[in-house]
Amino acid sequence: MGNLSDSSIKEIKKIAEKYPTTESALLPALYIAQREKGWLAKETMDDIADVLELPKVRVYGVATFYTMYYKKPMGKYVIQVCTNVSCMITGGEEIYEHLIKVFGIKSGETTGDGLFSLLEVECLGNCGNAPVMQINEDFYENLTIKVVDEIIAKLKK
Amino acid sequence: MTEAVLLSRVELKNSHTLKVYEENEGYQPLKKVLGKVEPGVIIDDIKESGLRGRGGAGFPAGVKWGFIDKDSPKTKYLACNADEGEPGTFKDRLLMMEDPHQLIEGIIISSYAIGVETAFIYIRGEYHKEADILDAAIAEAYKGGYLGKNIQGTGYDLELILHRGAGSYVCGDETALMESIEGHRGNPRLKPPFPAVVGLYGGPTVINNVETLSAIPFIISKGAEAYSAIGTEKSAGTKLFCVSGNVNNPGVYELPLGFPMKKLIYEVCGGMKEGRKLKGVIPGGSSTPILLPDEIEDLELAYESATPGGFMLGSGAVIVIDDRWCMVKIAARLAKFYAHESCGQCTPCREGTTWTYKILKRIEAGGGQEGDPELLLDIQDNMFGKTLCPLGDAAAMPIIAIVEKFRDEFDQHIKEARCPY
Question: What is each CA distance from B388 to B191, B345, B348, B397, in whole angstroms?
């Protein structure tokens, strides 16, 4: 142990009490750990396995199934651009390709300064405001390349 | 205009708070039935209302509840499916953000009717703010005596747990959703046994969509007849239609079932953007077969509606596509989605979705070969109906429709060895 903070461990144990089984707390536990560490290193997952008394492989299996658990370090701002149909036909693909050029990285990569990670994602469930992207936990809607440039410039400051 | 069933409060300031909800008839339906009306009577009411599941399948909600053995010695569960992941769908988001207490009240009444004392809301991971709003509303409901022990002094107990997904479309399938709540990978289960018999933690389980459960307070308050009077004979009530794509006013609209598709696009949504021509409409989420302009001519948005193009109401997600768009490209994008979201458990889906995407990408890039359209159809045929969960069907249906209805575009791509768009 010694990786996850005591407060995270406490939080995980508290959540586990709510559920009919302890292992049900695995998804929330991974979120708690990711919030503290920024991503899920093997050692972090091992800690979760210890706290919830689960085989380590169970934790790895779940963490690798779901895309929102990061298995490598991410930038300060994780930009998720939707290119599914509703966004694609309203300009989402151009926005994604623009960001590839601006940052000089591909989907899943992080800029050298550690500021931005770019992810091409599937439908974010906000198609009425397409094209959309999420930066960390916030939605940005009805985007144009100009608006995206302004958002990025603001974040760089 | 028909009376709003689901969106009566969304325009109010602070509509997400308990105070505003209570001031606008909120939790009155619950007080009317909890401890006063027999659970079986409520189930009969819901059956009589004609309410059908709004997640996409359209199964009668009351009948689903009726499958639960009320004398089962096992613990029963209810899960609200808020894993709104079908591309084009964004209606449950509105209900959760603007009227979370309506959903919570629907969950409490439903749980009481089914005999459930632990309920879950499974919300997709990308809905951060939505989950925060729900969390706050749940806390308010506990404080207000609507959740927890001895609700409103009736002796009825209910715990409600908000469980966040983490980025997986397949978890919208009810058996995968249960796996995810139990802390597993979201691999769908073999059916039967159905969730009503063996569901969450082995107990009888009901899974209903956000929109379905949000309609319950209205039905209890105004009566089954008032609900079934709206809509058509086989499709009772109102439905949230979420329109996206190349229209002037995309958004969520509550309309009586049976509403004409053309009127939705050209009047409610203000018509095609920049006066462009309609090329096709995906009528009920990305899994439903695309319709051509002449196929929506007299189409009414109801579960029983049929059109030569094979209409499915689905989740009510209408994606409107104008004539600038290449249909091979659209098909390739859809195929990419299903290939990404296939959980990999069933071979036909795991392999079929990936092959489909690779072939479509190749055609779009100018590498199409004679026989590719037939090959695509053959692959879809090998997926359709051959997987544990509906993802295989969902992946196959849109591709079959696009290949068949826009065959000339495929032939042109192959002949000219390029995308003509």
Answer: 7, 9, 10, 16
| Chain A residue numbers touching B166 (CB-CB < 8 A) | 27, 30-31, 66-69
DSSP B366: I
Q: What is the CATH number of domain A77-156?
A: 3.40.30.10
Whether B93 contacts chain A with CB within 8 A: yes
Q: Does A127 touch chain B (CB under 8 A)?
A: yes
Mean pLDDT over residues B278-285, rounded?
Answer: 98
Question: Is the minimum CB–CB distance between A53 and chain B shorter than 8 Å?
Answer: no
Give ranges for CATH 1.10.10 in chain A: 6-65
The reply to whether B418 touches chain A by the CB within 8 Å rule is: no
Q: Which domains does chain B have, with CATH numbers?
A: 18-228 (3.40.50.11540), 238-322 (3.10.20.600), 327-416 (1.20.1440.230)
- Distance of CA B96 to CAs B167, B277, B409, Å? 18, 35, 41
Interface contact B185, partner A, CB < 8 A? yes
Q: Strand order in B251-256's β-sheet?
A: B251-256, B238-245, B317-322, B278-282
A125 with B183: Cβ contact below 8 A = no
How far away is chain B from the Cα of A92, in angstroms, using its nearest Cα? 11
Residue A31, chain B, CB below 8 Å: the answer is: yes
Low-confidence ranges of chain A (pLDDT < 70): 1-2
Q: How far is the C-alpha of B362 from the C-alpha of B371, rounded, in Å?
A: 13
pLDDT tens readout for residues A45-69:
999 999 999 999 999 999 999 999 9
Instruction: Flag whether residue B118 sits within 8 Å of chain A, measured between CB atoms.
Output: yes
Class of A6-65 per CATH?
A: mainly alpha
Least confident range of B113-122, B173-182, B305-314, B400-409:
B305-314
B contacts of A28 (beta carbons < 8 Å): 163-164
Q: How many residues does chain B have?
A: 421
Mutation target vs B (from A82, A123, A140; most B CBs, 10 A cutoff): A123
Contact (Cβ atoms closer than 8 angstroms) between residue A45 and residue A69: no
> Which of A20, A26, A89 lies nearest to residue B245, judging by beta carbons?
A89
Nearest CA among B345, B342, B265, B324 for reference residue B297 = B265
Predicted local confidence at residue B22, as pLDDT: 98
Name chain B contacts of A85, Cβ cutoff 8 Å: 87-88, 245, 282, 286, 319, 321, 330, 333-334
| Comma-separated ranges of CATH 3.40.30.10 domains in chain A | 77-156
Task: Please give, rounded to a whole number of angstroms, the shortest distance from the CA of B343 to a CA of chain A.
Answer: 8
What are the DSSP calls for B103-130, one per residue?
HHHHHHHHHHHHT-SEEEEEE-TT-HHH
Asked whether this complex has an ipTM greater than 0.90, the answer is yes
| DSSP sequence for chain A | --SS-HHHHHHHHHHHHHSSSGGGGHHHHHHHHHHHHSS--HHHHHHHHHHHT--HHHHHHHHHHSTTS-SS---SEEEEEE-SHHHHTTTHHHHHHHHHHHHT--TT-B-TTS-EEEEEES--S-GGG-S-EEETTEEE-S--HHHHHHHHHHHH-
